[in-house]
């Protein structure tokens, strides 16, 4: 977790900005398209987790809801990558 002080939202936005920069680098400088797409989808899932934890306060939700939302994020990311992989073949 990033922190619970008044600077936490700003720190979360800076983290999201850094993660977006990593996504750009993965898209622009990766020679292998499948690796680049996997990195971009993984980075997008990481951004979703940051938003869930920091801005939606999922860390205070019951364990079942947290597991559902994290699982949903993982399943959707895997489905997007899998469907892209199947369509590109």
* Low-pLDDT segments: none
Structure classification:
mainly alpha
Number of helices: 3
Instruction: Indicate the percent of residues in helices.
Output: over 70%
Task: Tell me the span between the first and last alpha carbons.
Answer: 39 Å
Tell me what you see in this structure.
The protein is mainly α and 89 residues long. It has helices at residues 8-29, 33-54, 63-88. It has one domain (8-88). The protein is 79% helix and 0% strand.
Can I get a quick summary?
The protein is mainly α.
Secondary-structure map:
Elements: H1 8-29, H2 33-54, H3 63-88
What keyword list fits this structure?
89 residues; mainly alpha; flat
């Amino acid at each position: 977790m990033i922190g619970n002080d008044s600077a936490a939202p700003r720190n979360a936005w800076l983290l999201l900005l850094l993660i977006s920069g990593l996504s750009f680098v993965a898209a622009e400088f990766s020679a292998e398209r499948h690796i680049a797409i996997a990195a971009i989808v993984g980075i997008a899932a990481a951004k979703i987790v940051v938003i869930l934890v920091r801005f939606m306060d999922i860390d205070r939700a019951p364990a079942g809801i947290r597991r559902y939302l994290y699982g949903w994020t993982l399943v959707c990311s895997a489905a997007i990558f899998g469907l892209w992989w199947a369509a590109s073949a």
